[in-house]
# Entry
Amino acid sequence: IFGLFLTLILLAIFGVKQSLHWSILAFAILGSLFPDIDMPRSVIGRLFPFISKPLERKFGHRTITHSVIGWLATSLILSAILILLCILTKQSLAIPISLCKRWLAAFAIGYFSHLVLDMFNPRGSQLFWPNRSRDVIPKNPRFRPESGSKVEVIIFILFTVLLFSAFPISKYGITSSLRWLLGTPDAVIAEFKDMKTRLYVEFEGVFNESKEPIKGLAEVLDVKNK
# Structure
């Protein structure tokens, strides 16, 4: 949930709209699960036992795959795979390079969200592996929730609410969402000037001279002053 929320928000902040595509969300989920590939009992570990079992024997849990090195290495490997996929399917599937970039960004953000959350756990994480020191937030262990605790359930509910609030932001972008929220004439004019599609205004009122009522829907053609 946190990985999905962080992916949608960060992509919106960097001006990437329309990120609610199922494939982008799938890569965010994959990224958020991937660090636990060093644990055979995990969801991702059960899917790839030939990777998870050797990793656990060699390094243990929350070491190399939960580090900045593991994050960068995995992201680079995925980027090479995606580039190759885009090249090979250029004629048959015609996967846009822009979509491949969003897949990579979603995976990388989802992966990093896992590392951040694990630092809030009592055990912490070896973010700067091979340095064996545990990285934690906050320093006092009493304020770091246990996995499966009531506090973790509350955090889960909070991020679920935030995730749904991120849907419109992801669809329209941060700037447009703020303008829609404000709903002022200045915000509408600014949005109209940035839009690449047609804008229609729904209006209702009376004529100044005849006082006859009027209402309807009209396309906005231009803006004069404010």
About this structure: The chain has a mean pLDDT of 85.
